[in-house]
Amino acid sequence: MSDTTSNDVWTTDLSAQYDGASMVWVMVSGALVWIMIPGVGLLYSGMSRKKHALSLLWASLMAICLISFQWYFWGFSLTFGNAHSRFIGSLEFFCFMNVLGENNAAATLPDIVFAFFQGMFAMITGCIMLGGACERARLGPMMVFLFIWITIVYCPCAMWTWNVNGWLNHLGAYDFAGGGPVHQASGVGALAYALWCGKRRDPLTNKGIPKYRPHSVTSVVLGTVFLWFGWFGFNGGSSGDASLRGFYANVNTNLAAACGGLTWMFLDWFRCGHKWTTIGMCSGAVAGLVGITPAAGFVPVYFAVPIGCITALCCNYAVDLKDILHIDDGMDVFALHGVGGFIGSILTGLFAADYVAASDYGTVIDGGWLNHNYRQLGLQLAACCSIDLWSFVVTSIILNIMNKIPFLKIRLSEEEEDLGTDATQIGEFTYQESNVYIPEPVRSKAVPQKANKEDINSVPLPDQTSEEKQDDDTV
Fold this sequence. Notes:
Pfam families: Ammonium_transp (PF00909). The protein contains 17 helices and no strands.
């Protein structure tokens, strides 16, 4: 790669400025991250009740559409623009202006490749956060809220962490692939969303938090499979090139997820009546993936085992926090992503090793406690607290302002919630059942007497006789 890069397609071979293998690896990794987003939708949909299942699939695809535009419009620029402060980027890349062959954001990649990859991170963050309002949020205000949230919560947190001018970057906090900007910001944001929406309506649960069995364990498994598969791009591509460090990160990723799944499953065996729960195994795998995210490119592979196990253990007990806090986080977004991201970031400060980062030639870090850099734990704690506090406070402010505006009220009415989000907000259903009432258009002809009134649409209207046609012509 040359020392200086250009956007001039007429005088420069833009592709020749970079290593082709690195560009391919990061582009493919970005596509892998994309598949995680409908994976979250499947996971949330399976965990929900049947009458709300489609709305959560809808939310995942909506997040892709809306955040793709936001990222193009100003999200990438606010996050990776050459900032005049350490808090937020500039608007020099507004609407992807001059985003092509130069390497303003990442030294090893052209801006257009890096913008594509990082855009997927913004999408998955927003999708995870929406789980906080499952089964009770109005979908129109949800879209408005998501656009604002990505702009003033996610973009600043990502800028602090990954922009060369960001204050957490200058401070020296480690975050390989998004334990703070992605998981903690979304987990704490989901907690605030759940808090201000209030608990789900359940006439049988006057006190405490309502709990429901997942309506489709199959969807939960499929969602977990998509997430686990896509996470290899999420963590592996965060090296920014096709170096050994990115592949090493994927080994850490798989091992932590496996150990997390085993830990949660065995723990649930003791806590849930000696049953080997599928939901527990899936939850543990996701917890392990979350925990290894900030550490994947920093820690030796043998530390992936304790990271996966410890994160799953902490997240398992963190699920009970919603009963203590009286906040109905039905998808356990805070327990898995907020707590899991926090634990993973702290363990990164303990186990980070300089030689792992150096596997991407030229990358130099001081390491964590493993290298006797005891200060690193304090830096990790500062990064976690700042991102968590920012996400919770700003999310709460956004939601309370929206609730003051009649057409932006964030929650369904009681009647709408009883009918289900799918029926009242979408008009379509995940499963088309015979007992679901859907209004039919008014018919212009009388229904034959022999028709079955329970299924009148299955009996075709008879052809008119010649006499009826003559009568019509006479009229």
